[in-house]
Amino acid sequence: MADETATITVRQFQAMGEGKLPGLLGLELVAAADDRFECRFEVSKRHLAPNGYLHAASVVALADTLCGYAAGANLPNGAIGFTTVELKSNFLATARSGGVRAIAEPMHLGRTTQVWDARVRREDDDAVIALFRCTQLILWPKS
Q1: Can you tell me the distance from the alpha carbon of 101 to that of 127, in angstroms, rounded to the nearest whole number?
Q2: What are the tens digits of pLDDT across the range 53-93?
Q3: Can you point out the beta strands (E) in the chain?
Q4: Integer Cα distance of 101 and 1 in angstroms
């Protein structure tokens, strides 16, 4: 059962991604709480590189989407949005099939930036595929 304690619910996030990259990649937000977001996809041909292994861009899209949803749900009062200003990734393994799941947690929730760490794992054996750190710049209205 999905946790829907964040300002925006899991269903609302899913609707925002329809017809856009998250929807096209089949990303499924599983949990949304202020301090923990979780997203997954089932590996299919669209996620693979020509060599038959999981394409790094699919994993980056999962982590960046997840950290973006988390940042959007945790904006300071008065902020109008955010944008990713840095994304660091370390790839440790891969997948050819099965489910891939990411969990993001906040490392810093400031007035001008947020930093989220995400860990991506294979669902079948819980092996870590990649580690991410995403820095989001908080956007404010012009005065």
Answers
A1: 10
A2: 999 999 999 999 999 999 999 999 999 999 999 999 999 99
A3: 28-33, 36-42, 81-91, 99-109, 113-122, 128-139
A4: 15
Tokens representing residue 123 in the block: 């669902």
For the record, the structure tokens of 3 come out as 């946790």
Instruction: Kindly state the DSSP code that residue 47 receives in the 8-state scheme.
Output: G
Q: Taken in order 11, 14, 19, 20, is the CA torsion positive or negative?
A: positive
As given in the structure block, the two tokens for residue 18 are 């329809």
Cα 13 to Cα 23, 66, 81, 93: the distances in Å are 10, 10, 15, 28
Instruction: Tell me the two tokens of residue 31.
Output: 């949990």
Query: Rounded to an integer, what is the distance from CA 11 to the centroid of its chain?
Result: 15
